[in-house]
Every structure is written in structure tokens, then in C-alpha cells.
Amino acid sequence: MKFLAEKTYRFRWLVLGIWMISLVGITGVTGSIGAAFSSSFDLPNTESAQVQEVLLEEFPTQGGDISQIVFESQGKLTSPENQETIEKLINEVGKSPIVDSIDSPFEPTSASLNPDQNIGFATIHFNGAARDLSKEEITKIVDISKSFETSDLQINLSGVVIKLALANAVEPKSSEFVAIFAAFLVLLYVFGSLVATLVPIVVAVFALAIGSSIIAISSNWMDIADFAPTLASLVGLGVGIDYALFIVTRYRRAIHEGKSVKESIRIALTTSGRSVFFAGIIVVVSMLGLFTVGLSFLNGVGTAAAISVTVSMIASLTLLPAVLSIIGKNIDRLRIPFKKLHSKDEGGKGWKNWANRIQAKPVRWAVSSILVLIFICIPVTQIRLGTSDSGNDALGTTTRQAYDTLAKGFGAGFNGPITLLADVSNQNSEEASARIIEIIKSQPEVAEVLPAIPTKNGMYQLITVYPKGSPQSEETSNFISELRENVIPSIEKETSVSIRVGGLVAIFKDFGDVLTSKLLNFILAVVVVSVLLLMILFRSILIPIKAAVMNLLSICAAFGVVVAGFQWGWFEPIFGTTAGPIESFLPIMLFAILFGLSMDYEVFLVSRIHEEWIKSKNSKESVSKGLAATGSIITAAAAIMIVVFMAFVFLGERTIQLFGVGLAVAVLIDATIIRSTLVPSLMQLAGKWNWYLPKSIERILPKIRLED
Question: Considering the domain boundaries, does residue 32 fall inside one?
């Protein structure tokens, strides 16, 4: 870090120029080649994936994704006026280059009209998967369909294709501006001067712009989910401002103590800069740990977040010191009136008094903190993983209205049909399919079964089943399990017909099952690597283990709040999303992000305690000074993270809401209960054992020190 500090100071204008040229160049490349974000995922070796492969090959009109145009009339849809309008609509939508065919609600075998004939739907068969379809063409389909509405005919559209297209139309830019402005206010309060406030903001925005462009370019060569750029911006912006905050704070402290600009840069990078470097590495390791799961969907999300954090970290270690070198001792220019810029006691007397209170009764503080965390974790015991459906969309959206209309006219299960693929190559197809349908219809969870659709060669029969429960309901998930484990084996034994279960609902269930099976190995991999990195950094065996346990507690508590808020519905009045299951990919992805972010504060706090320990070898004094020096900065950093994360929550996308709330709550708990109370109390109790490392391990670990 000394070398980096010297070079960025000496060649500060060159470093600034390189970053500016990089920004212009990378954004220019992005503008020319564009982005190709994905809206689906591959599930190798799962039953639903096998069904999808056969559908693409044997049922071209069934192989692409589907959506429904849902109609509701005050009278009957079969009236001459309504029927003429609907047929014209179908004809116009059918002209779209992305539409393969449309099933009219008036076809006798489609079961697309309810008994009262006032609600019905036309099924659009697209000629590709949602990720391959033009979002502009999908939006045109929505606009064309809505243009046929009359005073007697309400029209809405549902389905994953429509939902994804409309969700992508919501730009996160406004949330980014809100997040940046909120962070600006926090920094202005912390630093007390406009110049010091703008420096971290400018550096973070530079990193955000370049990172976002790299992610967009990368999407042309690997599958990166549609929501990954928003998630990467959310994480990258938060860590970028935080990293800059820690370095600028240490730089200002050195300037206030009378050090030269060059010396202040060296001090900032060799202390806070090293902490930023290790904290960033741990976040990146956590995100790239998603590769151990073996799903391209998660690989892309992990890569996007890792790119964003890496660029933010590099910017904090190169661009930031170059900017500070140029600004020099003007860092406190344009100060806020009545705001004190410098305190003789680093961190102020308030945090020193707080440290003394904890050290006076460490057992009481440790036990009470653990009990509070356990209480917040309780809802996790009731977590139900699954996939939310359009019933969780915001009120007034076309997908939510279509969902509610279908549920009213046919039952909730018509929003998520289950596909059965029967191989009847060795049987009489008509007799076999008739018997299969008869048995499936007899199941208490089934609302409707459509007639079988054969392939041209008669090898397969496609049977569509509408369950009674909604796509996200536990009853539907259990029904799919019942089909696979009991009903279908019984049918296969009786008819000698091989049957596989597919469809979107089954795909999401398989996705959740795959992730659940991989979760433990993923957690172990990330924890082990992070513990090793901290062991190298702090030359301790106790601190890394304690850090891992603390991180797991904060993550568990965050999940407790998410379950209570989104699964139990406590947040419905705030965010407008109804209660539903927690997305099956949330635990593994939220863990990856939170474990890394939690380690940020661990590194910043313990590294400062470690500095004081090296100087004094007094455990009580080092904990007290370390907490006093970093307490206010960690709190400010957490406040920035929280406002950044919460700014994205109001985009209206439930997935981002889950991430935003989970991240914000975890950071709040981590910065208050854990880093400011539990960690200092435990380190006070451990005393000199905090820094114990067996000699056998010491010999094999590489030597890396935080201090000069």
C-alpha cells in the first residue's frame, strides 16, 4: 500500500486522466454493442428441464413462453359485439413477429371461458423464451390489447413474458439518484464540509458508471439476470461510498494532526486502504462463491455484483487518493456553519464512554445482545421458500388485474398450469391419455384438465392441468410433489406410460429444490475462505471464528425480518405487495452479499483494535480506543448503506424489495447490536486470547500486516 500511495500521489493527474478516459471509453463500447440480459435460467438434469427440451423439439408452438390476454365483461364475452372485438384483437396481436399462435377463448377445447361466460382468456404462444423476445414488441402487444378496451370489456395481460417486460421498463436510475442524494446528506453531516462530502460521492459514481458498463458488456457473453444490474448498482454504490468514507476519514484525521498531504495519503492507504482491500476481497469471494452452486443464473448475478464491488474497491484505492492529492489541504473547504470539523479524541467522547460502559459489564451486554438477536431470528423457523406470482404485483398493474380476474373466473390455479408430458409411443395413445386424464381429474387438488394434445408422430401427449391452488401456494407445491412421488408412479404402473411433470410452476419448484440442496455446501465454502482470509489478516484463530458466527447471526436476523414482513404480510401497507413465499434464490444470494458486507465492518473495527493492540499490548485499552475511533464512522457507513438500499425498495419490484429490506436490516443490526455492542464485549472477555494463533498455523500462513 505504501507503493500505491506514493504512485497515486506522484502521478495523480495521470491516474485521474486514466479513469476519465476509461469512463468515456467503456460507456462508448456499451452504447455500441448494447446489453443482453437474461430473464430465465437453466436447470440441468431436472425433470421440468427435460420436459421443456421435449416441448421445444416436439411442440414448436408450446416450446416458447406463453402469456394470457384476460377478458372480463359486464355481460357475456360471447355477445356479438364482444366476440367481434376479441377476434379483431387476436388478429392484430397475431401479426406481431414474436407471436407464433394464439388460442382463442371461443375454441371448444380450450376451456378458456368460465361458466358464466363473462371471463375468459386467449393464450399467446410466443416463438421464443422471454429472454430472447424483444421488450419493445411485448410492450406493443400490451398497448394493442389495451386499445381494444370498451365500456363493457376490460382487458389485461398476464404471464411471465409480460411481467418481465413491464418490470424491465422501470428504470432504477431514479432510485440511484435518491440513494446518492441521501448518502450526500449523511456525508455532509459526518464531514461538515461540502468538499469532503463530494469526494466519496464522485468516486462512487465513477465506479458505478464503469462497473455498470462492464456488466452490460459482459451480458453479451454470459447469462446475467435482468435484475442483476439493479442489484449490482445497489451493492456497488453502497460499498463504494463506504470505502471512500473510511479512507477520507483517515486522511482528514492525518491532515488535522498536521501531517503533509503525501504523508496523509500514505497513512490513509496503509491503514484504512488495507482494510478496504481485504473487505472488498471478502465481498467478492462471497459473490463468486455462487459459482459453487453450478447454475448459470446465479453465476451471472454473482459476477455482476463482484464486478461492481471490484471496480468500487479499485476506485477507492487509486482514483480516491489521486483526487485527495489534488485537493490537498482544501478537503475541509465550504464547511457547514456550527459544525465542528476536528475532535482531539478520535471518534469523540461519546463513543469512548460507550466503550467504557460495555467494558464495565461485558457479560451483561454480550448476553442481552445475543438474546435480542435470537428473538429477531425466530420468524426464520417459519420460512417458506417458493416463487411469488402476479398475485404479489402492485395493485392496479395489468398483470395483477389479470391475475385477479382469472382467479375470480376460474380459480387461482389458472394462473399457473402444470404440464404433463406423456410418452405413449408403446401404447394406444387415445386410451392411455383418457385414463391418465381420468386419474388426474380425480385428484382433489385439480380444478381442470384439458384434452391431450398429440405430436404429429403420436409419440407424446401433452396434458395441461390446472390446480385449485395459486402458483405460489404451498398446496400447489405439495401437489407437484404428490404427482411425482405417488400419483404418476401409480399411473405408470397401470398404463406403462412414462410421464414427466413440467411447466413454469414445476420449473420454479425444481429451481428451489436445487438451490436448497446446494445451500449448505455454499455457506461452508464462503465461511471457510473468509475465515482463512481473516486469519491471515489478524494472525488470530478466535477473531475469524467469532466473525463468522456474528455474520451468521446478523444474516439470520435479517431473514427473520424479511419473513415477518413479506411472508407474513407485515410490510403490505408499506410496499403494497401481498404476503407470499420468500423467493427460493433469496437465501443463497442474500447470504453471499450479506456475509461479505458484514465482514466489511468486522475488518474496519477489528483492524483498528489490532492497530492499538500492536502499540500497547493492552487488550482493554485497544478495544476501547478501537471502538471509540471507528464507532461513529461505522455508524455513518451503515447509515449510508441503509439509505442506499432502501432507495431501491420503492421501485415496485418485489424481488428488489426483498433484497433491499434484507440488506438494510442486516446492516442496521450489524452496525448497532453486533459491531458496536456484541463484538467489543466478547473481545473484552477474550482479552489477550483474541490474538492467539497456534505456532503450527502461524508458520504456514503468509505474513500480511495492516499497520505500517
Answer: no
Asked whether residue 497 falls in the same domain as residue 626, the answer is no
Report the alpha-carbon distance of residue 594 to residue 665 in Å, rounded: 10
CATH number, domain with residue 259 = 1.20.1640.10
What CATH number should be reported for the domain holding residue 482? 3.30.70
Q: Is residue 693 part of a domain?
A: yes
The reply to whether 133 falls in a domain is yes
Q: For 224-268, give the DSSP string.
A: -BTTHHHHHHHHHHHHHHHHHHHHHHHHHHHHHTT--HHHHHHHH
- Of 461, 476, 502, at which residue does a domain stop? 502
Tens-digit pLDDT profile for residues 617-630:
888 888 888 888 88
Whether the CB-CB separation of 620 and 604 falls below 8 Å is answered with no
Residues 337 and 356 in one domain: no
Q: pTM of the full predicted structure?
A: 0.79
Lowest-pLDDT range of 21-35, 382-396, 621-635, 674-688: 382-396
34: alpha, beta or left, given left = phi > 0 and alpha = psi -120 to 50?
left
DSSP per residue, 100-169: EEEE-TTSTTS--B-TTSSEEEEEEEESS-GGGS-HHHHHHHHHHHHTT-BTTEEEEEESHHHHHHHHHT
What was the pLDDT predicted at 261?
92
Q: How many CA atoms lie within 13 A of 217 on its CB side?
A: 16
385-386 and 582-583 beta bridge pairing? parallel
Same domain for 207 and 310, yes or no, is: yes
DSSP class of residue 394 equals P
What burial class does residue 328 get, using C-beta atoms within 10 Å of its C-beta: 0-12 exposed, 13-18 middle, 19+ buried?
middle
Cell of 469: 391452488
Residue 423 has a CB neighbour count (10 Å cut-off) of 17
Same domain, 422 and 470: yes
User: Does 585 score more than 50 pLDDT?
Assistant: yes
Give CA–CA dist 554/598, Å, rounded: 8
54 vs 129 pLDDT, higher one: 54
Statement to judge: residues 424 and 546 lie in one domain:
no
- Domain-terminating residue out of 472, 502, 532: 502
Same domain, 187 and 125: no
Judge residue 168's burial from the number of C-beta atoms within 10 Å of its C-beta, 0-12 exposed, 13-18 middle, 19 or more buried. middle
| Residues 653 and 533 both lie in one domain | yes
The answer to whether position 626 is within a domain reads: yes
Query: Is 701 found in the same domain as 574?
Result: yes
Query: Mapping DSSP to helix (H, G, I), strand (E, B) and coil, where does residue 342 land?
Result: coil
**pLDDT at residue 706, rounded to an integer:** 47
Domain count, the chain: 4
Report, as an integer, the average pLDDT of 584-596: 84
pLDDT tens per residue, range 39-73: 656 676 788 888 888 887 777 656 567 888 999 99
Q: Quick one: DSSP state of residue 399?
A: H
* Residue ranges making up the domain that contains 357: 347-394+518-708
How many residues comprise the chain? 708
Kindly give the residue spans of alpha helices, DSSP state H, lying in 378-466.
398-410, 429-441
Closest CA to 71 of 12, 146, 3, 17: 146
Average pLDDT over the chain reads 86
* Average of per-residue pLDDT across 14-20: 94
Specify the DSSP class assigned to residue 270.
Answer: I
pLDDT at residue 367 is higher than 70: yes
Task: Report the distance separating Cα 27 and Cα 38, nearest Å.
Answer: 20
Per-residue pLDDT reduced to its tens digit, 537-570:
788 899 989 988 888 888 899 999 999 999 998 9
